[in-house]
Every structure is written in structure tokens, then in C-alpha cells.
Amino acid sequence: MVLGHRLHLLEFHEQQWFPEHIRELVVETLYLIWTQVPMPSMSMAQSVVCRVIEDVLRETKCVEMVDLCSGGGGPMPSVASSLRIPVTLTDLFPQAEHWERLQRSGNTRQFLRFVKEPVDATNLSVGRLRKSNVLRTFCLSLHHFQPQDVRRFLNDTISAQQPIVFVEAQERSLRFLVPFFLFAYPATWLLWVVVLTLRIVLSNGKALLDKNWWMTLALTVVVPVVPLIVWVDGLVSGIRTYSQEEFLDVAVTCTNSASYDWSVFTKIYWGFVMTFYRGTPKKSS
Ligand SMILES: C[S@@+](CC[C@H](N)C(=O)[O-])C[C@H]1O[C@@H](n2cnc3c(N)ncnc32)[C@H](O)[C@@H]1O
């Protein structure tokens, strides 16, 4: 059950003044959760995102995706390589070095592009991202915006005649907030212990010569400021999450909103909740 009204409390990692290095590690943590946690619920989460996006691509005949608020990339590099369709990552605080590393790794190379300059989702001035056969995606980021900003980018999406999909993996409910409150902080700390140990093993010890490895160890494990920010911002994200009604209230008041089909649906498996908010141009328009 959705609790009360959404409250737009402060999230640390979205603030201009927030230390860049800690922001990078916070969004990298989200990427690790999406991609490296060896739990069936996480691989299912990625495959559910993949299926929802595949349906929209098929219905709308889009041949490309632009991901807004990409952070560490979230599930999009893996979605792009599974569906064999190019995705352009963008963010207000671009993570170019991390995205370059993703481009170099595995089978994502030919599908992954990115914009090095800051891209503000509420003011999309990058012309080539506005082509009508491009699907816009937002993962774990709808809650970053106040209703007036959501209306602004929905208006812009409608004027570009692009379909749009938002994915949220948190919820304004006790079934999300209570387990997250109890487990997210120690689980994130443990995740970094495992990841940093694996980096030593997989590099035959060379990671120990890298000052970035030591900096990451300091901020994630020794003084666990990164797990703390993930925990606090994660709880605030839950409280900020749009209910189905709140999102649709904004969507239907956009200019030419009637030329779009809007839907919101939730998928639950292994106790893990994901909500999808979709807008697609009506076939006749
Ligand atoms: C919770 S992270 C989500 C990262 C990634 N999409 C994922 O699924 O793991 C939210 C991202 O939104 C970005 N962001 C916040 N406000 C933004 C804006 N106005 N325009 C573009 N990106 C923004 C932040 O920099 C951050 O990387």
C-alpha cells in the first residue's frame, strides 16, 4: 500500500555541492547492485526491464534509446547488448570515465554511446537525442523531479513524439522502506568488501598499487560514507516515489497529452518491487 503523499526531501548525491568522488562511488554502487549482485531477484530485475523496453521498442518501431540520468549506467548497458540496440547514456553529472570503462568491457562496446557534457533532463537541448524514433528511458530517477519538472520533460517528449519509459525499483510503502532501513546499509558495505577483494584477486594483486583502489576502500569500507549516502538517499527516494495516480495526474495535464497512451504498472517477484511508467504516441497520431 502506498503511504501518504510524496515528500520532496533532499537527496545528497544530486546536490551541486556534493563531492564529485563520493557521487561517482554512489552511482557506481547502484550499477554494481543492478549488475553484480548474484541474486536471482537482481538478474530477474534486469530481464524484466529488458522485456518492458523490448515491448515498447517493438510497438513504437524505435531503433535507438537515450537514457537520461544514467549515473553509473544502471541496467542500460546490459539491456542494450541483450536487445542489440544502441543506447546513449547522459547525466547532469556525466560519469565519462566510468562509461568509457563500460564501453571497453564485455560485449557492450558496439551498443554503448555517451554524451560527455552535462545533459539536464529538464532541458534537453541535444538535438540528435530528439529524433522521433528514439526511446527515452529513465532508471531510478523519476523521483528526482518535482511535478513541474516532470511536466516539463513530458511536454518536451510529446513535442519530439518520442516514447518514454521510467523504471523505479523503490516504492513509498512499508514493504520497501522497512527492509531497506534494516538491511541496505550493512548489505552495501558487504558488497564493497566483496567487490574490492575480487578486484585484488582478478588483478593478481595489482589493484593494491592503484591509489583509486585505496581511496575507494577508505570511502566504502573503512569510513563507510558511501554506504551511508546510499542508505539515506535510498530511503528518501522511497519517500519521493510517485504513485500511479500522482504520475498520471501530471501526465494528463501535459500539452497534447491525449495524443499519448499512458500506463503505470508494478511487477513484484522475490519480494522485489519494480514500477514502470510508460508513455507512447497513439498509433493514429
Ligand atoms: C539514483 S541515480 C540513478 C542512476 C542510474 N540510472 C541507475 O539506474 O542506477 C540518479 C541520477 O540522476 C541524475 N540527475 C539528477 N538530476 C538530474 C537532472 N536534472 N538531469 C539529468 N540527470 C540528473 C544524478 O546525477 C544521478 O546520476
CATH-defined fold name? Rossmann fold
Note the run of SSEs as H and E.
HHEHEHEEHEHHHHEE
Structural class: alpha/beta
The tally of structural domains comes to 1
Low-confidence stretches: none
Ligands bound, unique: S-adenosylmethionine
What oligomerization state is this entry in? single chain
Output mean pLDDT.
92
Overview of this protein structure:
The chain is an alpha/beta fold. It has one domain: Vaccinia Virus protein VP39 (Rossmann fold, 3-Layer(aba) Sandwich), CATH 3.40.50. It is built from nine helices and seven strands. The chain has helices spanning 20-36, 40-60, 76-83, 96-104, 147-159, 174-202, 211-222, 225-240, 244-252, and strands spanning 64-68, 87-89, 112-114, 134-139, 164-168, 260-269, 272-281. The chain has a seven-stranded mixed sheet with strand order 3-2-1-4-5-7-6, with helices on both faces. Bound molecules: S-adenosylmethionine. Residues 14, 27, 30-31, 34, 68-72, 74, 91-93, 120-122, 139-141, 144 line the site of S-adenosylmethionine (SAM). The chain crosses the membrane at residues 176-201, 213-232.
Brief overview, please?
The protein is 47% helix and 15% strand. It is α/β, with parallel strands linked by helices and 285 residues long. Strand 2, helix 4 (96-104) and strand 3 form a beta-alpha-beta unit.
Please name the defining characteristics of this protein.
alpha/beta, 285 residues, seven-stranded mixed sheet, single chain, transmembrane, binds S-adenosylmethionine, Rossmann fold
